[in-house]
Specification:
Blueprint (H helix, E strand, L loop, with lengths): L3 E5 L3 H13 L3 E5 L2 H11 L5 E5 L7 H11 L5 E5 L4 H9 L4 E4 L4 H18 L3 E4 L2 E4 L4 E3 L5 E3 L2 H11 L6 E2 H8 L8 H15 L9 E4 L3 E4 L2
Parallel strand pairs: 1-2, 1-3, 3-4, 4-5
Antiparallel strand pairs: 6-7, 7-8, 8-9, 10-12, 11-12
Length: 228
């Protein structure tokens, strides 16, 4: 699956040039011209973004402040700062906020593409045990999720077990009997209502409209299904 890169850059010619080169390399590209547009995209698609190229000087926002918000929501998301400045203070400030790289304009596009590839490779290696989909992500090793609103939430071991069971077999209906067999011991007696409640919680976490789920479905009389 192609990596998705968000470019936050107010210089239209530069943003378009970077976008065209990234698309030629097979990446999916999202463009934001200012902080407001960036926040709108982040609010709706944070879990689907794999890397952000972020201009320090935006017309309506501080790139540093935006980076801080991004890293608070998803600390592992790679961020590359783009800036016309070449002062060591700015570079240090950006790195303190968690930026993964810092590129000063003007720059060589081949070098930028190489840095992006290296960062994505490193991020993919670090994200083993993480499942990402359109409206969130699941961190199996830490029992945490990132909701569709970008919020980090800790889950119980059994909730995470059910999430793993459903997401690892996307588009397949998992019966209640199979879920109970795999997640509960023989001397326990869970009800179907217990599983229903877990799925209702998943919808609250991951569905923009929990009443009209697009990911977590109940199949009457059978079980449950996850679709990406």
């Amino acid at each position: 699956m192609s990596s998705t890169i968000l470019i936050v850059e107010d210089e239209a010619n530069l943003a378009n040039a970077i976008s065209l080169n990234l698309k030629a390399e097979g990446y999916v590209v999202l463009l934001a011209r200012n902080g407001k547009e960036a926040k709108t995209i982040l609010n709706s698609s944070l879990g689907a973004i794999d890397l952000i190229m972020l201009d320090v000087m935006l017309p309506d926002a501080s790139g540093f402040e935006l980076c801080k918000q991004i890293k608070t929501a998803r600390a592992e998301l790679p961020v590359i700062f783009l800036t016309a400045k070449n002062q060591s203070f700015d570079k240090i400030e950006g790195l303190k906020l968690g930026a993964d790289d810092y590129i000063t304009k003007p720059f060589d596009l081949e070098e930028v593409l190489l840095r992006i590839r290296n960062l994505l490779k490193r991020a993919n290696k670090a994200s083993e045990g993480i499942f990402k989909f359109k409206n969130g992500e699941v961190h199996f090793s830490t029992f945490e999720i990132v909701s569709c609103a970008g919020e980090k939430i800790s889950l119980s071991k059994r909730e995470m077990g059910l999430l793993e069971l459903l997401t690892r077999q996307a588009n397949k209906v998992i019966s209640r009997d199979e879920i109970i067999e795999k997640l509960w011991s023989a001397d326990e007696n869970p009800s179907s209502r217990t599983i229903d409640n877990y799925v209702l919680n998943f919808r609250k976490y991951f569905e923009p409209n929990p009443k009209e789920p697009i990911h977590f479905h109940s199949v009457r009389g059978v079980g449950y299904k996850f679709t990406d």
